[in-house]
Design goal:
single chain; alpha/beta; Arc Repressor Mutant, subunit A; D-Maltodextrin-Binding Protein, domain 2; LTTR; WH-like_DNA-bd_sf; DNA-binding; transcription
Length: about 290
């Protein structure tokens, strides 16, 4: 018997025959002629000095004593695939800058943290900005937005909608709204928490004023600050349902009409998707946003 063991090509053919149960199917899977597969298996049998497969009416079956070779082939296959995967991942390197509004910081950070584990050469920058950065001028690589620009140089992919509702702390409800219902005629009697005056053009802020909210006891450009102010019982505020409903101590108020929801977009420069590092970030963020928005 030759001292040299079987090659990867030998094991690959034997492994495929084991999986496909026929020389014909194995040949199709490998892109080889059926006669070539049979000839290579016979050559391996001669080299090892023992039969490896049995031909029968139900197809080809690998001999039980040859299953160790099949297992060796599977291990080599997994190892080679890991090497190929590592080679692909090595190209995912460099810095990707993501710009989001504060309300998406938690979900985006979760997604980027997972991605960093998969691609150690990837460097990530997350900017939480109230202003809308200019993606067309590459101030950031990726943006999560609730408004479209209509720019021809950008892809603005809809991810779903953010639904908002009035929330108040449990203590505020117990003191002033025991039925957790807020009619339009009573809105002016309550304390409100809202965005800075510079953000009054937001549809949600316009809805508040149209519904009768007049007494704003706390304003901020930070959605986290607004959330904390509502939790502290300062007043009623419009919060994203997907986040606020998971916070202990908040109560969703019933109103005569629903506030407007907002479409969320994943935005990036058309050329950015050609870059591997940006492409993997886009894929991870899209999956996270679709989970987050339900």
């Amino acid at each position: 018997m030759p001292t040299d063991g079987p090659s990867w090509d030998d094991l690959r053919i034997l492994l495929t025959v084991h999986r496909e149960k026929s020389f014909l199917a194995a040949g199709k899977a490998l892109g080889l002629a059926t006669s070539t597969v049979a000839r290579r298996v016979e050559a391996l049998e001669r080299a090892l000095g023992r039969p490896l497969v049995h031909r029968g009416n139900t197809g080809v079956q690998v001999d039980a004593e040859a299953l160790g070779l099949v297992g060796l082939g599977e291990n080599l296959e997994l190892g080679l695939e890991a090497l190929r995967r590592d080679a692909r991942d090595a190209t995912v390197a460099g810095t990707v800058r993501v710009s989001v509004s504060e309300g998406f910081v938690r979900a985006t950070t979760r997604a980027l943290a997972r991605l960093r584990v998969k691609h150690p050469a990837l460097l990530l920058e997350l900017a939480s900005e109230s202003r809308q950065v200019d993606l067309a001028r590459r101030e950031a690589d990726v943006g999560i937005r609730i408004a479209r620009t209509g720019s021809a140089t950008l892809v603005e992919k809809p991810m779903g909608r953010v639904h908002v509702a009035p929330f108040a702390s449990r203590s505020y409800v117990e003191r002033r709204l025991p039925e957790a219902r807020l009619g339009r005629d009573a809105a002016s009697l309550h304390d409100w928490v809202g965005f800075d005056r510079g953000l009054e053009r937001l549809p949600q802020e316009q809805w508040l004023r149209a519904y009768g909210a007049t007494r704003f006891v706390f304003r901020s450009g930070s959605s986290t600050a607004i959330e904390e102010a509502v939790l502290a019982g300062l007043g009623i505020g419009l919060l994203a349902e997907v986040q606020a409903s998971g916070l202990d101590g908040l109560v969703r108020l019933e109103t005569e009409e629903r506030p407007p929801s907002a479409e969320v977009y994943l935005a990036f420069h058309r050329d950015a998707k050609k870059t591997p590092r940006v492409r993997v970030v886009l894929r991870e963020l899209e999956a996270e946003l679709r989970r987050h928005l339900g």
